[in-house]
Amino acid sequence: NGTTKSEVVEWSTSDETVATQTPNGEWTKVTGVKAGTVIIKASINGKVAEFTVTVTTGNQTVQSLEITGGN
Asked: Could you report the per-residue pLDDT of 43-60, keeping only the tens digit for each?
């Protein structure tokens, strides 16, 4: 499991004013900035996985999140 050197996971957030993400290869750190909802996307080799993060208060960090499957 994991990725090969030629595979790079691309991470994005739908609204950086609500939550930012700091990518580190196969995983990303998501940090809440203010209350709201964002979609975090991970894509690799044409496959995309999305998940919704709801931030209830600012300055929150998601401790753990695993994405399996994807389209």
From this structure: 988 889 898 888 887 666
- From residue 24, alpha-carbon distances to 34, 37, 68 in Å are 23, 22, 17
Q: Which helix (H) or strand (E) holds 43?
A: strand 36-44
In sequence order, which residues have a C-beta less than 8 Å from that of residue 31 and are 6 or more positions away? 19, 20, 21, 22, 59, 60, 61, 62
Using CA atoms, how far apart are residues 34 and 44, in angstroms rounded to an integer?
A: 28
42 vs 71: CA distance, rounded Å: 11
Overall pTM > 0.70: no
